[in-house]
Design brief:
The protein is about 30% helix and about 25% strand. By secondary structure, it is an alpha/beta fold. The chain has 2 domains: about 80 residues, 2-Layer Sandwich (GMP Synthetase, Chain A, domain 3); about 260 residues, P-loop containing nucleotide triphosphate hydrolases (Rossmann fold, 3-Layer(aba) Sandwich), CATH 3.40.50. Strand 8 and strand 9 form a beta hairpin. Helix 3 packs across helix 10 and helix 5 packs parallel to helix 6. The chain is globular. It binds adenosine-5'-diphosphate (ADP). Adenosine-5'-diphosphate (ADP) binds next to helix 3, strand 12, strand 13 and helix 9.
């Protein structure tokens, strides 16, 4: 959808520069739901005399092509760059920010959260990649419906590069592309570390605003070697209400805060915080208690990023290879609130 909209808007030319508004970077953000399309146009100049005319053209084109949708065109002024510029100092080159997603235990929804956050960030207009480093249960290929993908190797500037999978505009590299589920045990240890190193340094990521790294659950040598290889800007911890107080989560926090590691924690997300049945969308059942993660966050001086309930569409989305943020507007809203905070914390902490 976003590419289709960009394709249409490439016909709009700024009279002063003679360039089209897409290639000249006027489109800051595109968001679309079943019945609404929102476009944010950023004009470098304040009071650009052509702003009104361009807005009208954008509205007319979109209304013609999407007659069922409400079209909202927002004009922002001032030349602030819409995206963080990629730092060249990371070993991976064109990646501006790397965010690690961690959890104390498996099964709390860390991979589901990673996938949905990636789509939320993409919907905000960022270029996003996922490095699935969960050697115990690499589930990103399934989340994005690319399980059978076999990465190709190509030469780029005389170096070997591995081509990542791509789904929903998100670049994806997973340890799961290289191992069979039955191999998983063998891969613990040195072999996994070597494979991860290669995936980190040789993947053809291109330019990314954010790379989300889905870490294995818990803490261990694997974590330390990933942390040693990647310049991680911030960490996000995922927990369920039952798991939040257990020692594994505390160990995770301590790992990031260890002076030798020293990675800022962007915050904690409480996943499966409550249950809402499809037929009673306003009812919330706090099956495992309420506010546990918030209390934990406060006691440990960690930012609380928000709650995600148990909903059918999230589970279905992971089964069907299309994260729910891409299809369910309620889920998109929950994740967008969280993603906005993570962007703010990460960009701030890596300055
Ligand atoms: P982890 O990566 O922590 O091991 P997963 O992301 O694989 O956990 O999630 C475990 C299971 O829980 C998956 O089947 C997933 O679809 C489901 N799940 C995760 N979060 C939610 C949620 N908020 N609502 C419904 N199902 C969820």
């Amino acid at each position: 959808m976003e590419n289709e909209i960009k394709g249409l808007l490439a016909a709009v030319v700024h009279p002063e520069t003679g360039k089209d508004i897409v290639s000249d970077g006027f489109i800051e953000h595109i968001a679309s739901t079943a019945n609404k399309i929102t476009i944010v146009l950023r004009f470098a100049k304040t009071r650009d005399p052509f702003a009104g005319k361009i807005r009208k053209q954008v509205e007319t084109i979109l209304q013609e092509h999407f007659p069922q949708s409400e079209i909202l065109v927002v004009i922002k002024e001032g030349g602030q760059p819409p995206r963080p510029e990629p730092k060249t100092s990371t070993t991976t080159g064109g990646i501006a920010h790397i965010i690690a997603i961690a959890s104390g235990k498996g099964g709390v929804g860390k991979s589901t959260v990673t996938a949905n956050l990636a789509v939320a960030l993409r919907n905000m207009g960022f270029r996003v990649g996922i490095l699935d480093a969960d050697i115990y249960g690499p589930s990103q290929p399934k989340m994005f419906g690319v399980e059978g993908y076999l990465p190709d190797a190509v030469q780029e500037d005389g170096m070997d590069r591995i081509v990542p999978a791509e789904s929903m505009d998100i670049k994806l590299m997973s340890i799961g592309f290289f191992i069979k589920p039955t191999d998983a045990l063998l891969w613990r240890g040195a072999m996994a570390v070597n494979a991860l190193k290669q995936m980190i340094h040789q993947t053809q990521w291109g330019t990314l605003d954010f790379l989300l790294c889905d870490l294995p659950p818990g803490t261990g040598d694997i974590h330390l070697s990933i942390i040693g290889e990647l310049k991680i800007d911030s960490a996000v911890i995922v927990s369920t209400p039952q798991q939040v107080a257990v020692a594994d989560v505390v160990r995770g926090v301590e790992m990031f805060r260890n002076p030798n590691v020293d990675i800022p924690i962007a915050g904690i997300i409480e996943n499966m915080a409550w249950f809402t049945p499809e037929e009673l969308p306003d009812n919330r059942y706090y099956l495992f208690g309420k506010g546990g993660a918030q209390r934990f966050a406060k006691e440990n001086d960690i930012n609380f990023l928000g709650e995600i309930p148990i909903v059918q569409s999230i589970m279905d989305g992971s089964e069907e290879g299309r994260p729910a943020v891409g299809i369910d507007t309620r889920v998109e809203q929950w994740y967008r609130n969280i993603a906005e905070q993570i962007v703010e914390k990460t960009v701030k902490s890596s300055r």
